[in-house]
Structures are given as C-alpha cells and as structure tokens.
Amino acid sequence: MEDLALLLARWQFGIVTVYHWLFVPITLGITWMVAIMETSWVRTRNPVYLRMTKFWGKLMLINFAIGVVTGIVQEFQFGMNWSTYSRFVGDIFGAPLAIEALLAFFIESTFLGLWIFGWKKLSPKVHVFTIWMVAFGTMASAFWILVAGSWMQYPVGYVLNPATGRAEMANFLEIITSKMLWAQFPHTIFVGFATAGSVMLGVSAWHLMRKQHVEVMRKSAAFASVALLVGSLGVAMTGHWLGQVMVEVQPMKMAAAEALWEDEEPAAFSLFAVGDKENNRNAINVAIPAGLSLLSCNNLDCEVRGINSLQAEMVEDHGPGDYIPNLFVTYWGFRLMVGSGTLMLIIGALGVLFHIRGTLPKRRWFLVAALWIGIAAGFLGNAMGWIFTEMGRQPWVVYEVLLTRGTNSPTVAAGWVWISLIGFSVLYGLLAIPAVYLFVKFAKAGPGEETSNEDVAASMVY
Amino acid sequence: MEQGILNLETLWFVLIGVLWIGFFFLEGFDFGVGILLPFIGKDDTDRRVMINTIGPTWDANEVWLLTAGGAMFAAFPEWYATMFSGFYLAFFVLLVALIVRGVAFEYRSKNPTSEWRTMWDSAIFIGSAVPAFLFGVAFGNLVRGMEIDAAGEYVGGFWALLNPYSLAMGVASFVLFTLHGALFLSMKAKGDVYERAVAIAKPLSIAATAVMAITMIWSYVQADGGAIPGLLPVAAIVLLGVVVWLVYSKLFAWAFVFTGLTIVTTVAAIFIGMYPNVMTSTIDPAYSLTVFNASSTTMTLRIMSVVALIFVPIVLAYQSWSYWVFRKRVGREDVTSSVY
After folding, report:
1. Three state DSSP letters for chain A
2. Which of A142, A401, B74, B320 is the most buried (most CB within 10 A)?
3. What residue spans define the domains of chain A?
4. Chain centre to alpha carbon of residue A153
C-alpha cells in the first residue's frame, strides 16, 4: 500500500524533526549566552562569570549532544524516505545542505571540541574565541537549513525543466535573499534566545527558591530574563512580519490558521472556533472584528482571503483536489504557538522588571511560574511553531509546485518505514531519559567554586 | 556522448571521493578506538584515556560524512536518492549506531556509577563496530553493482545487499579501521593503553593485510576486470605489508601514516573503478547512474565549486589547528579528576 508508506514517512519526518527541534533552539540561544558569560569573565576576571560559564556550559553540552546526533538523521532521511522529492529538488535543495555541513557543522564541531578540551591548553582569550565560533556556527547552520526549508514554503529562483522533470536552480541570489527566508531566519534566531532564556530562567529560579548559589543564580536570572524578553519581543515582531509574508505568498496557510472560510473585508481574528468541514464553515467562532486585517496588513479594513475561494482558485490552477491543510492542527497549532510566545514575553518582561527593582529572588510565585510555565511554554511554542508551519504547507511539499503525495521513496515498502519509524521513536524516547536525567542532575548540582580556567579544565574532559 | 574528464561533474565526483577519504581516514581511527575500548581499556580510567584521545576531534571527523552526504545530494541528487533509499535498512542501523555512539561520548563520564558507564561503553563499542563494518558493505555493493532499474531505482531488496563479496569488504573495513585505531592510540596514549595498543597492532596488522589481500583479489574477479582499476588494489596490499614491517620495527607513527595511505588508496581505487558510474546497474549497464546523468545543473555545480574552493582550505586549516592543540599524549593523570 503506497499511501501507508507515505503516511508513515510523514509521521517519521514529523517525529524526528520535532524532537530534533526540542533541543536545537536551546543550543541556538545558549551558545550565545555562554559566549557572553565567558567574555565577561575574560574582561572582568570576576569568578562569578567563570562559574556561570562552566555551569551553563555543562548544560549546553548535555543538550548539544542530542541536537547533533539527531541532526544526522535529518540529512539522511531525505534520500532514505523521500527519494522522489530528493530527485525533484536536489539541484536547489542539496546545495544549502552541503553548504551547511561545510560552513556550519565543521565550525560547530571543531570549535566545540576546542572549547570543551581547551581550558588548559588555550589562553583565556583564545578559549573564549572558540565558543564565539560555536555560537556563530549554530547561527550559520540555522541560516542554511532555512534556505532549504523556506524554499519549500516559497519557491523562488528556480525553473521547471520539462526535459528532466525537476526543479532547477535559476538564481541562487534570489534563493538566499527570499523574503520568506529573511522572515524565518530572524524569527528562528529570536526563538533560540527566548527558549534558552526560558530554560535558564527556570533553572535559576529553582535555585533562587531554595536560596542557594544566590550570587551566580541572581546574575544568571538577569541574563536569562533579558534574553527571554528580547527574544520573545523579537519573535513577536518577526512573527508578525512572517505572518504578513504568509498572507501574501501562502494565503491558504493563513486562512487555515484562522479557520477563515470566506473572504472578509475587514477580516476578524478568531479566538475560538469549532470547524464544520462538511459544510465548509465554522460551527462556532468567537472573533475580534477587524483583528486579522490589522495583523495581515497593519490596517483595519483590508480584505483577507478565505479558504473557500482559495480552494477554488487552487483547483483552477492545479486541477481537482483538496488543497486545504489540516485545519485542526493549523488553527490550534497557531494559537498554541502564539499563546506560548505571549506567556514567554510576559515572564521575560516581569523578570527584567523584578531584576531592575532587585526583588526577583524574593518573588516566589514568579520563580515558580518561571520554572514550570516558562520552560513548558518554550518547548510547546517551538513544537507548535514547527508543526504549524510544516502542516500549514500541506498538501504541498514544495508550495504550489510539488504535492507531498508521491514524493516518498517508491522502492521503500511500508514495512521498512514501520521499522525505522518505530526504531527512531523508541530510540529517541529512550535517549530522552539520560538527557533529562543528566540535565536535571547538573542543573540541581549548581555551579562550582572555580577561580581559573585550569580549575574548569578537569571537569570538562570526557 | 563522450564527455572527457575536464568537467564539473567529474570534479565533483573527485571531491566527493576526497570527502569519503577524509571521513574514512579520520573517523576510521575513531571507530577503531571505539572497537578496541573493551579490549584495551581494562579499567574505567584506561577507557577514559582512550575516549579522551579522540574526544576533542571525533565530532568534526564525523562531519566529513555529513559533508560527503550533503555534497552527493547537491551535486548528484539521483545518486543520493538511489543510494540512500536503496540502503534503507542498512542506513537505519547505521544511523542508530552513530546516534548512540555520539551521545555515549558526551554522556558516559558525566555520571560515576559503573552501570551507567558500562552501558555507554557498550554503546561506544557497538556504535563504532557496526558502522566500521557497514561502510565496507555499502562500498562493496557500489563496487559490485546493484540492481538498478530503468527508472534509476534500486529494486534488489535488503538481503541482496548482504552478498558474500560485500560482507567481505565489511570485514576488511572493520579490521582496517581497528588497526588504524590501535596505531592512533600508539601515538596519542601513554602508559598501559599505549602498551596494549602497540601489542595488539601486531596481530591486527597481519590480519588486516590478509583480509585486504583476499578482498582486493576478489575485487578483480568480482568486477570482471573492469571496475577496479589497474594496480591500485595491489598498492593497497603492499602498503599494508609495509605497515606490518613498520609495526614490528616499532615505527608506529609511520605505520599509522601507512594505514592512512592504505585507506586513501583503497577508496581512490573504488572511485576510479566506478567512474563514470556512480551506481552501476547489474540489470542493464544502460540503467547505470553516471556522473553525467545523475548530476545537478552546471549552475549548481559552479556555485558549489566556488563555495568549496573558498571554504575547504579554511576548514582544513582550523581542523589541523585543533589536532595541533591536542597533540600531546593522554595519560591516566589527565582523567582522574571529578566530572563536576
């Protein structure tokens, strides 16, 4: 059954990618945080910064390991599960993946090795340089994978070659300057800061509640709050911008996110809806008048296209078919993403405010909220954002160019996909146990008493 | 159409060969160290010494694989698609192995209990042994040719991949990488680990020479005299013979260089032998994927060439620097401290 193999391959992509994406945003942000901390240590020689560097650096490494190894699957699975897709897009999609490995993975892995093992062998200045390179490498990695990913959302700079039946590169510059990319990339980077900030604030809060390691944790909480506030503000702004790009180039995704069936002028922003897909309408919808117009075009009266007319238009352009993404997933995914982001923004803002007032360590309710709500919102927001943007693209794998159906590997039977789907799911589930165990263990153990780079060296080796 | 060899397709075929050579040369000894972990690492401290000899650099070594895979996708999408879907279950096992191994390096010493460490040490051993074997099997199949149909899809199923010749290639790569790892330890470890590494290098060098001699001669037969070119496989056997002599003369660093040269020569032989095919069809030679019918467009290859020309030398420079930084031998005194 061909369609079963397709379905399983999609589930596999979803599972391994969302899992990978639970760890990667932390990496994206925390490498920068550790780099800033170590720079502060080198510049001020205040050992508190060294202890922060080591403490958060350890947690960074525990997290980094899972992100790295699950990343290998990402690169292999296009060929393994999606060979038809790979043949169709390879001319465009392969290049950013190869460039990511060459430009980003080598930097990350080499300089992370130097950072972990170089505490005694490198001068403090060179040592801090290595973590900056890692931070830069993670950012470069995000950029190049988003070159590939955003092209699937908004294909530009290509031609369809009828002779080979595939998409071929026509303009590389257009691909790496695509407006979708330059909305997604900053959005992703800010997400990294916000997520790392929420995790760091949560861990700091845990210690502050217990009034232990106060010096290190107070400073860490301040760092984290700023990262969380700046990150979430950036996420909101770039998200708004990304939404406007989406309205323009993927109106169906926005209509699905809003469960907006008919064209509206002005369009309302839905707060809660129960869909009635049989009759192409909502059974219940609570909405803010003109809210969606405001989000889509910064004014209160523009028209926003609805699902029904977009579906009709797509049938006209691409032939008969159902071009509506899964509305339940996109509608609620979008809301959970935005809701999580809002919670993070509030926690970040309060954290900064309380820090400025000097009352942060005493506000127990805030510390509890930062620990449980902040961290949960970080993970939930990331997972939902990813699921929303990928599911909202369906039924297309390359938007309005190639349907997902039929792009999986024709020679890979459903039985094989079952094996790898179950295998990876079980493996990833099992790996979460030691990862969380070690993270919690080192998080609870707290910082040490180091006063020099040499003191850190011994605790870093394998 | 006769294309000659002065074209971008051939350049990228060569570059991908170079990336695989780099991967096998570098990660080869990482695999070897992992395979030897239970045999040379008699106690926890010894095992930590071994792991720390490759600790700073193993991950960057593995990136050679990711770059090779990415480059195949970018330069030869048809090759990437056919090979990765064709080796589906084998690559699934390979990925599982690489995943547990990578996590194991990072996690095994972060908890002191012996159950914890034993578990991750097993992961390192399995995660090193399985890929060391599977890569040989995979390349054996590339040399031998696979059942590629008119659409360029592999239709031979899973069990056909486990043919005797490819399995022999798997054994050869396994033994060769193990030897490469022992010789790496002879340069990077001191104390008991060093002593045991050089002791085990002796029988390993003889075994590697024997296994490689068998598979290389088999290659001539297997390939109908066509797929494996001229004297390169013979050169690989001779180089390994030199390794035996160097090991018995206690010139271990030189022996390491020569196992490295053996890897270079063998992979080069495989690539030169395949050219211009990248996936040889055993159903009909006309179905074979070649560097010309499997490649990306000239524009993509040009862009990739510019990127590679600029960044490969930079990568080589800083990766070499990291080896220079960690040039000293690792001993028990380097790893006796607490992990906190």
Report:
1. CHHHHHHHHHHHHHHHHHHHHHHHHHHHHHHHHHHHHHHHHHHHCCHHHHHHHHHHHHHHHHHHHHHHHHHHHHHHHHHHHCHHHHHHHHHHHHHHHHHHHHHHHHHHHHHHHHHHHCCCCCCHHHHHHHHHHHHHHHHHHHHHHHHHHHHHHCCCCEEEECCCCEEEECCHHHHHCCHHHHHHHHHHHHHHHHHHHHHHHHHHHHHHHCCCCHHHHHHHHHHHHHHHHHHHHHHHHHHHHHHHHHHHHCHHHHHHHHCCCCCECCCCEEEEEEEEHHHCEEEEEEEECCHHHHHHHCCCCCCECCHHHHHHHHHHHHCCCCCCCCHHHHHHHHHHHHHHHHHHHHHHHHHHHHHHHCCHHHCHHHHHHHHHHHHHHHHHHHHHHHHHHHHCCCCEEECCCEECCCCCCCCCCHHHHHHHHHHHHHHHHHHHHHHHHHHHHHHHHCCCCCCCHHHHHHHHCC
2. B74
3. 2-245+394-460
4. 15
Residue type, B310: I
Beta bridge partner(s), residue A161: A166
Counted across chains A and B, CB pairs separated by less than 8 A come out at: 247
In-domain check, residue B162: yes
Whether residue B218 lies inside any domain: the answer is: yes
Q: What is the pLDDT of residues B258-317, one digit of tens each?
A: 999 999 999 998 898 888 889 988 888 899 999 999 999 999 999 999 999 999 999 999
Residue B19's H or E segment, with its range, is helix B8-40
Query: What is the rounded distance in angstroms from the CA atom of residue B257 to the CA atom of residue A90?
Result: 37
Residue B30's φ and ψ, nearest 5 degrees, are -60, -45
| Calpha distance B131→B35 (Å, rounded) | 10
Element (H, E) at B108: none
Give the whole-angstrom CA distance, residue B14 versus residue B11: 5
> A253: distance to nearest CA of chain B, Å?
29
Q: How close B336 comes to chain A (CA, Å)?
A: 8
Q: What are the b/e assignments for A114-128, b being 16+ CB within 10 Å?
A: bbbbbbbbbeeeebb
CATH of the domain at B102: 1.20.1630
Inter-chain CB proximity A65 and B48 less than 8 Å: no
Token pair recorded at residue A179: 């407006």
Contact A462 B102 (CB under 8 A): no
Q: Is B146 helix (H, G, I), strand (E, B) or coil?
A: strand
Distances (CA, A) of A405 to A418, A422, B108, B258, B335: 18, 22, 42, 50, 53
For residues B279 and B289, is the Cβ–Cβ distance under 8 A?
yes
Nearest CA in chain B to A410: B153
Residue with tokens 């059974």: A283
In terms of residue numbers, what domain contains B126?
Answer: 18-295
Note the pLDDT of residue B223: 62
pTM: 0.94
Q: Indicate yes or no: CB of A438 within 8 angstroms of CB of B108.
A: no
- Give me the number of domains chain B comprises: 1
Place of tokens 């700073």: B56
Residue B188 inside a domain? The answer is yes
Partners of residue A159 on adjacent β-strands:
A168
Write the pLDDT tens digit of every residue in A45-78. Answer: 999 999 999 999 999 999 999 999 999 999 999 9
Contacts of A442 in chain B (CB under 8 A): 110
In this structure, how many other beta carbons lie within 10 angstroms of the beta carbon of residue A279?
Answer: 9
Q: Is the pLDDT of residue A297 over 90?
A: no
The pLDDT assigned to A1 comes to 45
- Is B10 a domain residue? no
Nearest beta carbon to residue B102 from set A69, A105, A427: A69
B121 to each of B47, B160, B227, how far by Cα in Å?
8, 32, 39
ipTM > 0.85 (yes/no): yes
- Residue A152 is predicted with a pLDDT of 95
Residues of B in contact with A105 (CB under 8 A): 63, 66-67
